[in-house]
TrEMBL record:
It comes from Luteimonas colneyensis. This is Globin. Gene3D superfamilies: Globins (1.10.490.10). Transmembrane segments: none annotated.
């Protein structure tokens, strides 16, 4: 099965289980910042309360994107632009491996239903978004939306509503 015919429903569910733990994204950043000495300087001026929410949504978009959904094209394109060499937060490609490894480590420790097979699926899906970011860095593409994507957008909106910030 290829990424474009697989909606990664198992990953949306796994991610939902991870997010029940409200420290999940915070722990990801702890692990990621410690994963490589080149990472912390990139976040020297970051407001982590905003950043945690941005990444929380970003991972949902990444799972949809890996599943071939065009409804997240705009969001994925914007994230790719932020991290491109001419973007606001250029990311050296060599660090993407650390990003994926950090995320997988925290998912595996947090999702009570994690299995080696599920973790391989996470690696596959996050590999898709990283490859898209790298390709975007090489050749930016405008990504128009079409009316046919409206019903998919409805589903996407409902999922994103569930990701609204919770009041502490
Ligand atoms: C090596 C990998 C990565 C590094 C070093 C990195 C680093 C950063 C930095 C420094 C920022 C800016 C924080 C600020 O505003 O001060 C940022 C923003 C962000 N990153 Fe990453 N990132 C990486 C990979 C990813 C991936 C794979 C995703 C998505 C799945 C992602 C999603 C986001 C989002 C959504 C934002 C917020 C963008 C905005 O404020 O408009 N990042 N990242």
């Amino acid at each position: 099965m290829t990424a474009s015919t697989d909606d990664y429903a198992d990953l949306h569910q796994s991610y939902g289980r991870c997010l029940r733990d409200r420290d999940f994204i915070g722990r990801f950043y702890e692990v990621f910042l410690a994963s490589n000495p080149d990472v912390p300087p990139l976040f020297a001026h970051t407001d982590f309360s905003k950043q945690r929410m941005a990444l929380r949504k970003g991972i949902t978009m990444a799972i949809f994107h890996a599943g071939g959904s065009r409804v997240v094209d705009r969001g994925i394109g914007e994230m790719g632009a932020v991290h491109a060499r001419d973007g606001r937060c250029p990311v050296p490609a060599a660090l993407y491996g650390d990003w994926i490894a950090s995320l997988l480590e925290v998912v595996e420790a947090t999702d009570p239903e994690a299995t080696p097979e599920l973790m391989a699926r996470w690696r596959e899906a996050m590999g898709v978004v990283v490859e898209t970011f790298k390709a975007r860095d090489a050749a930016p593409l405008p990504l128009p939306q079409t009316p046919a994507q409206d019903s998919a957008r409805g589903l996407f909106s409902r999922v994103m509503q569930g990701l609204r910030p919770q009041q502490a």
